[in-house]
């Protein structure tokens, strides 16, 4: 049995990872840390876990974690993982980092968007989007788990760029996220009376997932590209819907688009390709590691619109992390993740 | 492997049972019937099931079902199960009925509340509330799965009546249900713009779960009792919260109440007893087979208030049905049901 | 034109009062204070007010307020009004206090439930529930505006106690409130991902509106009574539904109950009596000063169940305050309050 | 007093118009028709109106309506207004039509998108978007009230096209609507358990508001244009947020964009221009006739993103209809519409 620990277990992503790990046959739970709740059983912080995980939360103690873990999930705010990941790697642990610290290959880009000096710029992680980078993940020591918006966007767009079907400089992503994306930390934007029955855009042109999407799409396009990315807040808890607009290259047909998606994903369990005229809905993937994709070619405007739906806490965080763990540990990739959404 | 079929698979309870059965190691899915959608794959009716269950729905064909099933779940509106259950039993199948047809031991009471003549009054089912009736369920051929309000209410009240701690004629249940309790059938009360940001009572003094609660609580009390039962509709999808009021018998203390609950449920995996000053929340049991219980003794009014939370589609329907299946088939009782809530 | 000021204008009750005052023909807005946002226009704190009220918020300056106001609304947390109300009265201002400081006639009861020493125990306010106390309010200098749960509960119960139709020692109130009742201050209980799709009870047997309900119902009953009061949190923003249970006195009929309500409220614009079998829904009163009432006599249990619905921020706070202002200023009582709910 | 009637008063737009008309000083309510509920008081169909409008609903009787009305609002499904509007005009009534029948100036375009033969193609209405077409509306006999998506989109985009600041062939509108946009008619997409906690796109490339947006934007651009328009369904009742993407023409600056919006709307009461970095939220306009606008110029991609928020039932239907009535009747344009949102 693989011993797994979570640094930062009491955020929503950490808690959802616990739900998934409980359903996994090849692991045991070891150390769970929390800055705010150390000393309490996690089931006191999250009463829904009572009877399932009653482990007492620890302060961050890197030696203890190294001593008791084979795999370590790091679920900390950006700028914090870089302080602990090097030691974990030195000790030979496998690491999956939920945060942004190791996602951007160019340290200058990280420092520009995050306004934060990087303290371990030489440590290079594999970007953990299995449907694109599976081969590199297999042997990885440290995996940078992609952001939620990023996962939804890249899966929708990369196949079309790779096949050269769309103008790489025309990409627009209009993304809609549930409120859990903002975490468990309190804020007026997540205050129920303000957030319910409300839809708004935020951070237009400046969201930190933008350079991450651009990095991976530039690889797919074979040239550096910039995109327009607009995040919106939805009155719901879980889910991201990304509506992606691209100009078609001349003469490109619906069939070619469909072929590109089939080529990319026909053997992928977690990506579900919906038929013509069918579009994803966030509720159909709620609680799961699925990414549902639908698309429409509009001859009036010569554009293709691709819609993608994920659960931001699962395929956008904890589920993808577990998928990455399965890959680097040699378990079946869908272990612990093979279930449908909680519906309705 | 036990072959399981569902008659009426496209209601919410049937669909949720599918989610649970997919997570069960000892069964295979066999026939799924639907009156409205026969001929379509269930994953077309419920796209969240795509890639998990793509079985094509059948019309009701009792011979086919008998031929292909060991266990049959019947999820039909009241008055319909009684037309198929006798044949299933004759053929030696194990039957778990989600509906009301076999819940009330007194046929006259059934006919009075449901305004429906019973066509198989001699067929007696076991009332499938395992925490109260486990012994009878073990050998049962047909289990009448309790109603959702009923489960939440009985689990909260029966221990106190059984121990004689409260006045059996003082029981008031104020129950709050999510909208999925009204099913997938369309109605103005479930229309989103009408139902959201809205709370209301309905069917005061006349809800059909009342005689069912009274039947089981009368057993616990050792005498016939009537109760006040008021259902309310909440702007949420899943969950029932039952707030139960009872007058204490003279000199009864908080300790005695706590002891009664411990005695009843300390070995029950699905019932979770919360500590003093802690009260259940429906979200903590969402998607699970748990029933969370909290209570308060109020010396000012000499009453005890017990609060109980379940997921109406799980412990109130599909989960309890699976728990009953596990019991009658000799599987571990928690098989397929041992996971925490989807939270948040 | 009457000059009106609000001390504590940036809470939800204060902001909703602004909405109502904008619709009133006989007043002008004068000073608006805020501890947290002084110096900013209120339309920056509440962008929905842009173009309607752009007044810059002031710090609390009692001399300024006295100088510029005829009527002062005080919307402060308990314990704070008692520091400013005496000075306002000395200066001859009319005062309507939203908080609890002057609601309880017995200072000892206040100090017991609020754990707070009262600094102006001799100042006696009129309890501002116009449908019960209109005559006393007319000449009042200071009105203690009732709590939200209180208003919903008393209006539902008082007529039956006054007419001697129910056992005064059997009163149980099961109340359901929207989340705005907890205010704009941040807390985990109001955090969207925790609050949505969730129903729970809280503070059972200990909510501070309990003594206030008991005080007024004791007057109606003609003897001191205690009640069971259980508040619940609903996944919605606005609204309170109070479901009230009482044992009928012998031989009391549905007709007598109906007569009692007609007698009490037939000339009240804001109280709407629903017909037999009709029950209130919070959405029907949203944004308005209405209290909708429905009732059911249950011969099986010999109880009457009365259901009452209000908007907690309007009839439960700002609207009732304006109604009280209209009364003490001699304006038509419904001025500024004569509009139906925002529906759906 | 102007006598006003509503044909089709029991849809959401009709009911919301009643709320607004009750707040208007210069009109009386006359005939209200309903196909489904004729013979019932409207307050039985919509209990929130009890005590405010208790008028009994009539069947459609054109002679009665002509006899009793000066202004007639027609709120019928498309294809139905064209059967009654000509008679109303012949009788000299002023007509405001909520539907699509008279919005498209080119009958062929109407018939292509609506698959419906037009029976009064020669009757030409004025397109009732006052902020663009006020002068033509003043003398109009019949006003075609714009669609909800249309209003939000055109107000956001037209000023930039008119000033030649953006590429007219680059317009993309990603629109998000509350569920009331689908009306009070029942459907699985509006069923609470399906709609809540769910976001999805629908009708991509094929929504009927597309030609209407294109018609008005082509006027603004001075040349025929096509746009990409993608509607999405949000888990909320009221509100539309339209996020509009356009490529900037060379050298265009943020200042020029801001100047264009100021030029277009600085004297418009209902259009509120938010400052830099501020974006609209649907909740800030809920229940009102406001359209809030915010924008961002992104130098990285050389695009401008404009975000617009309205209440689909008010500025997108009933409120704009009343604004049009005020204009054609010579009342102050904001009469009955001068109030802020219900917040929170």
Describe, in plain words, how this protein is organized in 3D.
Four copies of one chain form a homotetramer. Chain A is α/β, with parallel strands linked by helices and 344 residues long. Chain A folds into two domains: 2-124, Rossmann fold (3-Layer(aba) Sandwich); 149-312, Dihydrodipicolinate Reductase, domain 2 (2-Layer Sandwich), CATH 3.30.360. The first copy, chain A, has eleven helices and 13 strands. A seven-stranded mixed sheet of chain A has the order 8-9-7-10-13-12-11. The longest helix of chain A is centred in the C-terminal third of the chain and has 16 residues, at 314-329. The first copy, chain A, starts with a strand and ends in a 15-residue tail after the last helix. The model of chain A has no long low-confidence stretch (mean pLDDT 97). At the B-D interface, helix 8 of B face helix 8 of D.
Average pLDDT level of chain A? 97
User: How many β strands of chain A by DSSP?
Assistant: 13
Gross geometry of chain A: globular
In which order are the strands of the major sheet of chain A placed? 8-9-7-10-13-12-11
């Amino acid at each position: 049995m693989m011993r797994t620990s979570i640094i930062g277990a009491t955020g929503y992503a950490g808690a959802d990872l616990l739900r998934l790990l409980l359903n996994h046959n090849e692991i045991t739970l070891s150390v769970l840390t929390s800055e705010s709740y150390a000393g309490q059983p996690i089931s006191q912080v999250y009463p829904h876990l009572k009877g399932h995980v009653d482990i007492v939360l620890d302060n961050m103690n890197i030696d203890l974690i190294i001593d008791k873990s084979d795999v370590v999930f790091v679920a900390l705010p950006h700028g914090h993982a870089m302080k602990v990941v090097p030691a974990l790697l030195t000790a030979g642990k496998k690491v999956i980092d939920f945060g942004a610290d190791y996602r951007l290959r160019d340290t200058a880009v990280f420092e520009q968007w995050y306004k934060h000096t990087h303290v371990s710029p030489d440590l290079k992680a594999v970007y953990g989007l299995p449907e694109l980078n599976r081969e590199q993940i297999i042997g990885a020591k440290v995996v940078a788990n992609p952001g939620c918006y990023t996962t939804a966007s890249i899966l929708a767009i990369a196949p079309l760029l790779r096949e050269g079907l769309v103008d790489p400089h025309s990409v627009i992503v209009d993304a809609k996220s549930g409120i859990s994306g903002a975490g468990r930390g309190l804020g007026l934007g997540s205050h129920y009376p303000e957030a319910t029955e409300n839809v708004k855009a935020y951070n237009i042109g400046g969201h930190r997932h933008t350079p991450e999407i651009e990095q991976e799409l530039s690889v797919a396009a074979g040239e550096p590209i910039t995109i327009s990315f607009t995040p919106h807040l939805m009155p719901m808890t879980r889910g991201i819907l990304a509506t992606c607009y691209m100009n078609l290259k001349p003469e490109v047909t619906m069939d070619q688009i469909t072929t590109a998606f089939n080529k990319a994903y026909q053997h992928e369990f977690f990506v579900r390709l919906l038929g013509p005229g069918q579009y994803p809905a966030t509720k159909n993937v709620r609680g799961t590691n699925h990414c549902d994709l639908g698309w429409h070619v509009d001859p009036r405007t010569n554009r293709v619109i691709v819609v993608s739906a994920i659960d931001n806490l699962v395929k956008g965080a904890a589920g993808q992390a577990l998928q990455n763990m399965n890959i680097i540990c040699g378990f079946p990739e869908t272990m612990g993740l093979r279930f449908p959404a909680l519906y309705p």
